[in-house]
Here is the input.
Amino acid sequence: MIFYFSGTGNTRWAARQLSKATEEELLYIPDELRKGELRYELKADERLGFCFPTHGWQPPRIVREFVRKATFVMSAGSGQPYVYALTTCGDNMGHAMRILRKALRMRHELTLDAAFAVVMPESNVCFSFLHLDSKESEERKIAAAKERMPHICQLVTERRRGVEELVKGAIPYTYTYVIGGYYNKHLITDRHFWVDGKACTKCGLCAKLCPVDDITGKPPTWLHNGQCTNCLACYHHCPAHAIHWGSMQRGQYHFSTGEDRK
Here is the structure.
């Protein structure tokens, strides 16, 4: 059983590789939260995986909410499951995995047996010092990720324990708890999004893709109800690039699902 969240498609791609390798069910966290039935019975020998993008050097709000609300029930006589997690990040992920590890231990008494980070193209447009990758850098990161995923899939398939292959960066504490603390407290909001009414084609894609149903109308308006997880799916997937975040003019990125990137 693999639970995943993805805004621009990076993590979805990685989670699908794991699902194919392990032949285990892939579940989209926003859909699970919408259902409200968050009780999961793990079969004997079933792995339990979590895949998510790093948001401000922390797990996304929606992922932490799911971990807090979910209940995992072990089959009789099955013992503790093999638990692993994978995060995608633009350059590094700080102590994001430490936060997940603590939440699993305190809420579910589960031990994270293996943890991985996969560097993928940057998608954060909310910090002035962060920039999207050039096309060359983007393709280079994707190529490296393609080479790395079979190794990760093998370790997970074999249930290797005590594995930690992370990219924490030079100052992980500062990234996660200082800069990331500010980011997750002040910038996880829909109040900085706005739409160029002249450019908007009123296709409704942004509302369809929003994982927390925070967008309504054509052209879109945001509900300002505190549910936004700032995944930037609406921003990056807009075919007319009519959606903007703040005053900075940035480009767009989302992971193609074409045959060339399988």
User: Anything to note?
Assistant: The CA atoms of residues 69 and 218 lie 33 Å apart. The two ends are 21 Å apart (CA to CA). Residues 258-262 have pLDDT under 50 and may be disordered. The first strand starts at residue 2 and ends at 4.
